[in-house]
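Write out C-alpha cells for Phosphopantetheine adenylyltransferase.
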Amino acid sequence: MKRALVPGTFDPITNGHLDVIERTAGIFDEVVVGVAASAKKRPIFTLEERVALVQESTACLENVTAVGFDDLLVNFARQAGATVVVKGLRATTDFEYEFQMSAINFKLDGDVDTMFIMSSPDKMHLSSSIVRELMQFHGDISSMVPPCAERALKEKFSC
C-alpha cells in the first residue's frame, strides 16, 4: 500500500490545494495531508483550525486524512508512513524553491521521494496569501476556496 504526504501551511486551504490533494488521492492508496505549524509564516488560523478546514474540505475523499505537524518534513513523512512527498507547482518560482527543498529532504532521508504535480491551469493563480489579501479588502473569494474556508475567513475578517 502506497501512502503519500501532501504538506503545506494551508492558511487557508484553497481550491488549488484541493486540486493537488484530489489528484494525489487518485494516484496513491492513502494520502496524508500534513498541515505544518509554520510559526515563521505567522498564519492567521491556528494549527487546529487549519487541520479542521482541511478535514472538512476533503471529507468526501475516503483515502485522505489531515494531521498537523511541527517537525522536519522528512521526520513527519517517516512518522506518517509516507514514502512520497507530493508538492504542487504553480510556476517556475515554485519549482526552484521546491527543487532545492526536495534535494535537502533527499539528503536527510533518501527513502522519501518527492513528486511534483502541476496545478491545473485554471488554479495556477491561487495562493493562500492572495486569498487572505483579497479577503482583507472584502474581495470575492468564493471561486478560490472551499465554502468552509470562505466562512472561516469571513469570520476572521468580520465581513
